[in-house]
C-alpha cells in the first residue's frame, strides 16, 4: 500500500506533525509518497533517513497510490482536487485549520486514521463537482471545483451586473459584488457566509447565492444539478474575477462562461462514526445552549 501526503508549503503543519504520521505509516509497512515542495520545507527538521518517494504533479500519483492524506484545513484539502482529478483516489483530511468541514480527522487521531485504513474500516462518499466551460482556456487542465464557482468584481469599484440563465432561459440579473454557484459540499463554505442554505452532500442540487446584492428581495436559490448555468457580466470595469475553489483568474467581461455538473465525482474518505449530521452539530454548535 502506498499513501500520498499533501500539505501546503506555507501552512501551519510542522515537521513534528509530519513525523507522527510517517512513524504510524512506516510502523505498519506503508510507504508514504510526500508532496515534494512541502517535503523540501520540512526535511531539515526530520530524522535523517533515506529520502521518501515524492510527487509533484497529478501524473506522479495516477496508478501509484491508494489514498491521499491532506494535512491542513479545508482549503488544503481543496488543493488536492488538482492532483486527484478523475482518478477516484480517496482523499482524507487531517484538520490543522479552524472549522474543518472537509478535513474531518483531528490531529490527535492520526493513529486511529492509519488503523482504519489498514482495517478498511471507513466509508467513501462520492461528492459531485462543478465544471466550468468558457470560450477561452481557463484554469488549465483543472476546470472543475469541489466547493464552488464564483464571479466577483475585481476591485473596490461599483457593483457588477450578472445576467444568469438556466439552460439558455433568462432567470435573473444580479446587481451585486458577485455570485456564487456551489455544490452541496460547498454549501457550508463561502455560500453559507453569504446567507446560503446548508445542503446535504447527497442532494442532487446546486445553490446560487449572490454576494452583497443591491436588491434586498434577491435571495439564494436551489436548482437541480442537471441545469447548465450561464452568465453575462457587465460593469464599469472591463474585467472581473472568476474562481474555482481557491484558484482564481482575471477574466474579460466579453468571455462566455457556463457551469454544469462535472461528469465524474470526487471520493472523500471518512471514518465509520463520522457523518454529515455529526459534523454540523460539532462545527456549528447546533443543539448546544450557549446562553449561559
Structure description:
The protein has 292 residues and is α+β, with helices and mostly antiparallel strands. It has 2 domains: 2-128 and 265-284, Rossmann fold, CATH 3.40.50.10330; 130-261, Tumour Suppressor Smad4 (Sandwich), CATH 2.60.200.30. The chain has 7 helices and 20 strands. It has helices at 15-27, 36-42, 74-79, 81-84, 110-119, 190-193, 276-284; strands at 2-6, 31-35, 53-55, 67-72, 91-95, 105-106, 122-127, 130-134, 144-145, 148-153, 160-166, 169-176, 178-182, 205-211, 221-224, 229-234, 239-244, 247-252, 257-261, 266-271. The strands form 4 sheets. The protein has a 6-stranded parallel beta sheet. The chain has a 6-stranded antiparallel beta sheet with strand order 9-8-19-16-11-12, with no helix packed on it. A 6-stranded antiparallel beta sheet has the order 15-14-13-10-17-18, with no helix packed on it. The longest helix is centred in the first third of the chain and has 13 residues, at 15-27. It starts with a strand and ends in an 8-residue tail after the last helix. The mean pLDDT is 92. It comes from Compostibacter hankyongensis. Its main location: cytoplasm. Belongs to the NAD kinase family. It is an enzyme of class 2 (transferase). Involved in the regulation of the intracellular balance of NAD and NADP, and is a key enzyme in the biosynthesis of NADP. Catalyzes specifically the phosphorylation on 2'-hydroxyl of the adenosine moiety of NAD to yield NADP.
- The domain count comes to 2
Given as residue ranges, the uncertain stretches (5+ residues, pLDDT < 50) are none
Assembly type of the shown chains? single chain
> Separation of termini?
50 Å
Q: What is the CATH architecture annotation of the largest domain?
A: 3-Layer(aba) Sandwich
Structural class: alpha+beta
Amino acid at each position: 500500500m502506498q499513501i500520498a501526503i499533501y500539505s501546503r508549503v506555507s501552512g501551519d503543519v510542522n515537521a513534528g506533525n509530519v513525523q507522527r504520521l510517517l512513524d504510524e505509516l512506516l510502523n505498519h509497512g506503508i510507504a508514504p509518497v510526500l508532496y515534494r515542495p512541502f517535503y523540501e520545507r520540512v526535511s531539515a527538521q526530520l530524522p535523517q533517513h533515506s529520502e521518501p518517494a515524492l510527487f509533484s504533479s497529478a501524473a506522479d500519483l495516477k496508478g501509484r497510490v491508494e489514498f491521499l492524506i491532506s494535512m491542513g484545513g479545508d482549503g488544503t484539502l481543496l488543493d488536492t482536487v488538482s492532483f486527484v482529478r478523475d482518478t477516484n483516489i480517496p482523499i482524507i483530511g487531517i484538520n490543522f485549520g479552524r472549522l474543518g468541514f472537509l478535513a474531518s480527522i483531528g490531529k490527535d487521531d492520526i493513529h486511529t486514521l492509519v488503523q482504519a485504513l489498514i482495517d478498511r474500516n471507513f466509508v467513501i462518499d462520492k461528492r459531485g463537482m462543478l465544471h466550468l466551460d468558457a470560450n477561452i482556456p481557463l484554469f488549465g487542465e483543472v476546470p472543475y471545483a469541489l466547493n464552488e464557482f464564483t464571479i466577483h468584481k475585481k476591485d473596490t469599484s461599483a457593483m457588477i451586473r450578472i445576467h444568469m440563465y438556466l439552460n439558455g432561459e433568462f432567470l435573473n440579473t444580479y446587481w451585486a459584488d458577485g455570485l456564487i454557484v456551489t455544490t452541496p459540499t460547498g454549501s457550508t463554505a463561502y455560500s453559507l457566509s453569504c446567507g446560503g442554505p446548508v445542503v446535504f452532500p447527497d442532494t442532487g442540487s446546486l445553490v446560487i447565492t449572490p454576494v452583497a446584492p443591491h436588491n434586498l428581495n434577491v435571495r439564494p436559490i436551489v436548482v437541480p444539478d442537471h441545469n447548465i448555468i450561464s452568465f453575462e457580466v457587465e460593469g464599469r470595469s472591463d474585467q472581473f474575477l472568476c474562481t474555482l475553489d481557491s484558484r482564481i483568474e482575471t477574466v474579460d467581461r466579453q468571455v462566455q462562461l457556463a457551469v454544469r455538473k462535472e461528469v465524474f465525482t470526487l471520493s472523500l474518505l471518512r471514518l465509520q462514526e463520522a457523518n454529515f449530521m455529526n459534523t454540523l452539530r460539532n462545527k456549528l454548535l447546533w443543539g448546544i445552549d450557549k446562553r449561559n
